[in-house]
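Subject: mismatched residue count in predicted assembly?

I count 1198 residues in my input, but I want to confirm that the predicted structure covers every chain. Input:
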Amino acid sequence: MGDYQAPLREMRFLIEEIAGLREIRALSGCEEASEDVVAAILEEAAKFAREVLAPLNRVGDQTGCRLENGAVITPPGWQDAYRRFCESGWGGITAPVEYGGQGLPKALGVAVEEMWNAANMAFALCPMLTASAIDALRVAAAPEIQARYLPKMIAGTWTGTMNLTEPQAGSDLALIRTRAEPQSDGSYRIFGQKIFITYGEHDLAENIIHLVLARLPDAPPGVKGISLFLVPKFLVADDGSLGPKNDVRCVALEHKLGIHGSPTCTMAYGDAGGAVGYLLGEPHAGLKYMFIMMNAARHAVGVQGVAVAERAYQQALAYARERRQGRDLLSGEGPVPIVRHPDVQRMLMRIKSRTEAARALAYYASGLLDRARHHVDAAEREAALSLAELLIPLVKGGATEMSLEATSLALQVHGGMGYVEETGAAQHFRDARITTIYEGTTAIQANDLVGRKLMRDEGAMLLRLIGMIESTCRELGASTDANLAAIGAGLGQALGALRTASQWLRENWRNNPVVTFAGAVPFLELSSRVVGGWLLARAAQAAKRGHEESVEASHFHRAKIASARFYAEHVLPEAQALANAIVQAEAGSWMAYQEALGE
Amino acid sequence: MGDYQAPLREMRFLIEEIAGLREIRALSGCEEASEDVVAAILEEAAKFAREVLAPLNRVGDQTGCRLENGAVITPPGWQDAYRRFCESGWGGITAPVEYGGQGLPKALGVAVEEMWNAANMAFALCPMLTASAIDALRVAAAPEIQARYLPKMIAGTWTGTMNLTEPQAGSDLALIRTRAEPQSDGSYRIFGQKIFITYGEHDLAENIIHLVLARLPDAPPGVKGISLFLVPKFLVADDGSLGPKNDVRCVALEHKLGIHGSPTCTMAYGDAGGAVGYLLGEPHAGLKYMFIMMNAARHAVGVQGVAVAERAYQQALAYARERRQGRDLLSGEGPVPIVRHPDVQRMLMRIKSRTEAARALAYYASGLLDRARHHVDAAEREAALSLAELLIPLVKGGATEMSLEATSLALQVHGGMGYVEETGAAQHFRDARITTIYEGTTAIQANDLVGRKLMRDEGAMLLRLIGMIESTCRELGASTDANLAAIGAGLGQALGALRTASQWLRENWRNNPVVTFAGAVPFLELSSRVVGGWLLARAAQAAKRGHEESVEASHFHRAKIASARFYAEHVLPEAQALANAIVQAEAGSWMAYQEALGE
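Triage response: the counts match. Full output below for your records.
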C-alpha cells in the first residue's frame, strides 16, 4: 500500500499522441528528444520517484518541518534525497543548455514533473519553486545576474522562492507594502514581511535566492508600482562564492492542513538594517514579469493536481483489489474484492478518466509551450503561445479542482479505513486541498480566463479551439465504431453547451460584469471538461488506430477507449448544467443573492 | 471567528412550514409542542450550543483523546460540558415520557440535534450514539431490561455504543466473527474484537452500554446468524447499582483525519474469560433490529452533514465580510470585503442554498417520522413511514455528500488562510469527511434506496412523491411572480430528469443489476437534489405568502426566495447530468470499465 508506479505507458502515449513529440523533435533545439531518450529519461525518473521520493512522503507528512533558532529542519531523509536529486541533474532537464541545463522539451519535462509530485508533493515544491525563480530570472534579470545565479539554481545547489503575499495582500497584490530603498552602490535595502513563502528557509541547499515584490520610494500606488528584487539568503561575491548572511530570516512556520513536509514560512526582511536586494529588470514592472512567468508556475500547479490524483488513484485501486466485502452481483460468490462492485468501479473510473483528461490537457499545453518557444515560424510561435495561454487557466483551475474530487473519492473507496491517517488516503486528500488555492485561486484563474484571455481577442482563439473540437466530433460521428460514436455524441453535446455559454459571455461582458464574473468559475469548469473530453477522444482515436504489438498494448488501448467513453457519459453531461448556471444569471437575482448574504 | 449562532428563524420556519408543526401538534402525545414551547427550547438549546459546546470544538480537535491504561481521557472541558448537558435534560427531549424523557416531537428534536452537531460534532456523537442505543433497546429489549437501562441512558448518566464493525467485516456484516456462548444463568459470554467504536470508552459517564452484534454457537452463516447483545462496561445489579467491571476494554484509539475529540475505539471482548452479555430480542434477529433503528441513526448522520455545513458557512461568511481584497466590479472602490466579489457570492450562495435544501429535507423527514409514530390512522402512519423510509437515504447520503462540497467551498472562501489550521475552516473540512462513510457509506445508502426502497413497491411511493412535486411545479408555473416562475421552471426540468431515470431503473433492475447499481449513487444524488429543490420551492412559496411583521422577517423571506432561485439555477441543472449518467449505462461498456481497472 502507498507505493507509486509512474504510469509510463500512458505518459509516453500522451507525449507522442497528444503533445506531439514527432513535431516537437523537429523544432530547433529539441532534436535530442528521440523516442529512446524520452523512454530512458522517463524510466530513470520513475525509478527515482519510486525508490527515493515516494518512501519519504509519509514521513514528511508525519514529521513535518520545524523551526529552531531561525533554521528550518526538513523531515528525516529529505537532505539525502535532495542531494541525490541534484546529483542526478533532475533540476535542469528542461533548463537552458547555456547555463548547464539539458534543454529538453517541456512535453517531456511535464511527465517528469508529474512523477516528482505524485511521489512526494511536499518535496517536489522545492524544485518547482526554484524553476519558477529560474523562469523569472530568465525573463527579467540582466545577463551578469543570470550568469551568476542561474547555473547554481539549475544545478539545485541553490534554490529559489517567490515572495508575493503579505498579510493584507493575498489575491490583491495592489496592497503590497514591502519597500525597497535605493543605495549608492546601485543595490537596494528591502524592508517588510512576506507570508506563505514555500521553502522560504530550509536545510537542503547552500543558498536560497528569494525573488521579492516590493515598492520603490517613488512607486505609483497599486499594481503599477511594484518592482521585482533578488534577495539572496547569503550574499554572493563577484567570484560566485558565498559571503555573509543577508538580513532576511524565517520567523514562523504555518501549521497547515497538508503538505507538512514543505515549510511554509513567514519571512522578515530588513529587521537589522535592511536586506540587500538587486532590482530585476525595469522599476515598477514587477507584475509584468510575474505575469510572464506565471504561465509556467500555474501549469506546474495543474500538474500537481494530476499527480496527487494519480497517486490517490493507485492507492485506491490497490485497496479495492485487496479488500474483500460483499458478494458478486451476478455470480453471488463472495466475499469478493470490492473492485467487483459497480459503485466502486464507478468511483475508480471517475478518478481515472478525469485524471487522464487533466493529464492530456496539461501535456497538450506543454507541447504548445515548446512550439511557442522553438518554432521557426513567428506566426506559429504566436498561435501556439496564444492557445497555451488560453489553456493555462484550464490546466491550473481544472486539474486542481479535479484533484479535490479525485482524492476525496479515493478516500471514499477505502470506507472507514480511509478516515484513518495511517492508511495514507487522507494525506492525499489533505495535500491536494492547497492546489486550488496557491498560485492563484480557482476564481483568479477563472477571471484570467474570462477577463483577460477571452476578452483580449474577443474570444477569437476560443472559437478556433471550438472549431478544432468540432472537427474531431465530425470524425467521431462518421466512425462505425460504437465506442467512438458514443464518445462523439457526448462530446458534441458538451461542445454545444460550451458554444452557448461562450456566446452568452461575449454578449454580456461589456455591459454586465457582475453576471459575467459570477459565471467565470462555472465557465472554467465547463471548458476544462470539454477540452479534456476532446483530448480523451483524440486519445481514443489514436488508441483505435494504434498498432497493437502486444497483449499489454492492446489492453492499454482498450482501456484508453473505455476511459474516454466513461468520461463522455459521466463527466461531459455536466457541461450542460454548468452552461445553464451561466446563461440563467440575471443582474437582478444577483442583487438578491447579495442581499441574502446580508450585504 | 469560529462562533456559532444557531439559525433560529430558519429552524422555526422549517419546523412550521416544512415539517408541519401545526399538524404534528394535533397528533396524540405531541400536544406539548406549542409554538411557545418550541421557541423556548430552541432558544435554550442555541444558548447551550453557543456558550458551552462551540467553544470546546477547537480544543477537541487540537487535543484529541488519549488512551492511558485502558482509560480514555477526553479533551479538557468535555467532562464539565457533558455534566451540564445531562443536568439540563438535553439527552431526553424526544425520548419517551415513561422513562423520563420529554416526549417532544422529532420535528423539534432535529433542530436541537443540528445545533449540537454544528457547535461540536465530535462531542455530539456521544449523545447521538446513546440515542441509537436507546432506539435499539426500545425495539428489541425485554421490558425489564428497558426499565433497568433506559432511564439512566435517557438521563445521560450512562451512554451507549453500537458495535458492528470488525476488521474483516465493514459494509459486509455477513463476515462478523464475534461469538456469544450461552451460560446456565441465561446470560452469554462474548468473545471478539470490534473496531471503529465511537465513544467505546471515555470518562464522561458512569457506565457505558455496548450493543454488540455476535454469533450464537448454532447460528446459520451470513447475516441471518447475527444476534444483538447488551454488554455493559460495569455490570448492573438488580437494584440498578453498578457491580464489577465487565471483561471488555478499549485496546487502541484510531488516529483519524477529523472528529479528534471523539474517541474511536478498538474494543476487545472476552480476553479474560468472556464479557457478560444479554441477548436482546430473538436469536439471529440482530440485523432486523439494526434495520429498524437504522432509520433514526442514518437520519442523525444526515443532520450532521447539515450541521457541519452550516458551521462552515457561518465562518466563511464572517471571513468574507471582514477580509478586504480587490475592487468592486461596478464602483471601482477598494479594497472591498471579498463578499462583494461575484465568485465569493457564488460560493457562499451554493453552500447556503444546498445547506438549506438538505436541512428542509431532514426536517421534513422528521415530521414524517412523528406522523409514522403518532398518527391515529394506521394507513396514515404507514404512508408516512413509507415516505420517510424512502427519504432517509436521501437525507443521509445527500446531506453528507453536500457537506463535503460545502466545507470545501467554505475553506476556499478563506484563500490561503483556509489552509492554515488555526483558522478553523480546515477542521470542518476534515470533520465532515467521515459523514459519507460511517453509518453506511453513500453507496450503501444508494443500494438501500434502489435495491430496497424502490424495488419493494416497484417504485410506487417514488411515483407518489413525483406526483407531489409535480403539483408544486404546477402551482409555481401559474405564479405571476418572476422568482417563483423561475424556480418552477428549474424544478420542472429537474423533475423530468428524475422521472426519466426512475423509469429507466424500473426497466433495468430485474434483468440488468450491474448497470442498475452502477447508477445507484447518481440516482441518490439526483433524487436528493430534486426533493431538496422541491422543499426549497415550497419554502419560497411560504415565504412569499408569509406575513411580514418586521423588516427582519421581510429580509428573511426574500432570502428564502433567493436561496430557492439560486438552487434552481445552479444546483437543479445537475439533475439532468446525473440522469444522463444513469440512462446511458450499458452492460457492455461496464465490462470494458472492469477490464480497464485491471479486473
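The CA atoms of residues 211 and 230 of chain A lie 5 Å apart. Marking this ticket as 'not a bug'.
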